């Protein structure tokens, strides 16, 4: 695979996680105390760096064929879950993820929490909130970077994509000092779901011994097919919802 598609795939996937982490950090920093918030974020980043340094080389030394089978299966599972949620949200069967509402919930909780100092940290709540938010979202970024980079034997390109996403989201968040509510997050998650499912299917099948026609070029067929499948599900569910709503509207018209 060319490095550019790998970078773009990792960029989009990591940008989604970075937006969610940014929401938590902003809520802690603006509502509580920036110093403790940044300390929590820094400790989480150090922990993620250690985890990446420990896992990356270990994974790279595993046999590639069974690794692709296991990683492919995991990516396909995660991808289908992301795709399912994106389809349900796009059709109204599941509420859209609202960063503004998530931000307000975090702000409300932060305002109600008691202020206490621990272990040299002025505001322990702000510290732990930022630490947990960055660490949990960051672990998903690490998983994406390690799996994509190792399977394509180009960890450097995966790191570039992840770093670019984190930097872009961070700079934007600092500039607006607010959660990124205008980001089309659901469609980004749809794209991530398509990519994870496609790569998972491709690598999992390779790990099981399948030889794809055109090798990596097969992804140029798999990715559009998965995207078309997701789009078809959206079209079908929207049609089904419209058909179900029509009799109810006719009943209300007759009754009135």
Q: Helicity level, as a percent range?
A: over 70%
Secondary structure: number of strands: 0
- The best one-word shape is flat
Secondary structure class reads mainly alpha
Number of helices: 8
Strand content: under 5%
Instruction: Report the major sheet.
Output: none
The tally of domains stands at: 1
Rounded to an integer in angstroms, the radius of gyration calculated over CA atoms is: 21 Å
Detail the poorly predicted runs.
Answer: none
Order of helices and strands: HHHHHHHH
- Overall pLDDT metric: 82
* Terminus-to-terminus distance: 62 Å
Organism: Trebonia kvetii
Keywords: Membrane, Transmembrane, Transmembrane helix
Transmembrane segments: 6-28, 40-59, 65-83, 124-149, 155-175, 187-205, 217-237
Protein name: GDT1 family protein
Q: Can you walk through the features of this model?
A:
The chain crosses the membrane at residues 6-28, 40-59, 65-83, 124-149, 155-175, 187-205, 217-237. Keywords: Membrane, Transmembrane, Transmembrane helix. It comes from Trebonia kvetii. This is GDT1 family protein. By secondary structure, the chain is mostly helical. It has one domain. The protein has eight helices and no strands. α3 (64-90) runs parallel beside α8 (219-255), α5 runs antiparallel to α6 and α7 (185-207) packs across α8.
Keywords for this entry:
256 residues, membrane, GDT1 family protein
Topology of helices and strands:
Layout: H1 3-31, H2 34-60, H3 64-90, H4 99-112, H5 124-151, H6 155-176, H7 185-207, H8 219-255
Helix pairs in contact: 1-2, 1-4, 1-5, 1-6, 1-7, 2-5, 3-7, 3-8, 5-6, 7-8
């Amino acid at each position: 695979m060319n490095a550019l598609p790998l970078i773009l795939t990792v960029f989009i996937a990591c940008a989604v996680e970075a937006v969610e982490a940014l929401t938590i950090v902003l809520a802690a920093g603006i509502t509580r105390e920036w110093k403790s918030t940044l300390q929590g974020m820094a400790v989480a980043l150090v922990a993620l760096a250690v985890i990446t340094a420990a896992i990356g080389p270990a994974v790279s030394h595993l046999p590639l064929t069974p690794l692709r089978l296991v990683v492919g299966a995991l990516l396909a599972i995660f991808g289908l879950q992301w795709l399912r949620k994106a389809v349900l949200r796009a059709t109204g069967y599941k509420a859209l993820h609202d960063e503004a509402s998530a931000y307000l919930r975090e702000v409300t909780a932060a305002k109600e929490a008691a202020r206490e100092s621990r272990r040299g940290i002025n505001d322990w709540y702000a510290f732990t909130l930022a630490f947990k938010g960055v660490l949990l979202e960051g672990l998903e970024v690490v998983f994406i970077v390690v799996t994509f980079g190792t399977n394509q034997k180009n960890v450097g390109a995966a790191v570039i994509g992840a770093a670019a996403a984190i930097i872009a989201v961070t700079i934007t968040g600092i500039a607006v000092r607010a959660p990124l509510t205008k980001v089309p997050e659901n469609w980004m998650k749809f794209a991530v779901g398509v990519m994870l499912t496609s790569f998972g299917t491709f690598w999992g099948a390779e790990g099981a011994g399948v030889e794809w026609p055109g090798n990596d070029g097969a992804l140029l067929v798999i990715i559009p097919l998965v995207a078309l499948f997701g789009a078809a599900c959206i079209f079908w569910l929207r049609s089904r919802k419209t058909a179900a709503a029509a009799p109810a509207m006719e009943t209300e018209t007759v009754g009135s």
